[in-house]
Amino acid sequence: MMHERLSIEVIVLESDGGMLGKMHYKHAQDLAKEKGFDLVQVSKQGTISVCKILDRGKWLYEQKKKAKAKRHQSHLHSLKEIKFGMRIDEHDETTKVNHIKKFFLKGHDVRIVIEMRGRERAHPELAQTKLDGILRQIECDVKSSSQRKNSKNLSVIVKPVKPVKKKREKKHASVKEIVSEEKNNSNRQREERQTSSVASGDGRREHRTRNSLSSK
Domain of 30? Predict the structure, then answer.
């Protein structure tokens, strides 16, 4: 089994990403040892392994560091919270609803909290009405979950049913479209030259005919 592994061919990269090409695994391993490094499989292209000559310990450290950063980024894009008071004015309410929409664009789920104070706590149904109105203002299909109600507030976690997409900017023409357009332009220019040439030839013939008649 070990002999088979040593005899297989692998694609080998330098530590800086430079391509060394395809070679037997044993040859690549010896080459790595000569340089004082390790031979590490970093990916696969079909059935062929892609190996890199590098410091294995440093590579493992970098991989852990990247994984930690990815987990941190995932945590940042998790749950946001927006609070509404029962007596919030219309302008502030609209501003907060717009914040919810922006969080959706960034991939966040949002916890909406309706805060009740003093005598407002005696009428939780009004908090529910406030929450329903806010959900209508979001203007996209949302999935609500984990609705909670206590003596002080009413809260619910919402997220879009489908990912909210930003308005797409006008796409740049693809290479195929550019080539096609240039070909069409070239054809039009050739047709125009041919038409111009025919018209010019007809004009010269007509001029010669008039001169011939005049001389007679």
Answer: 2-56
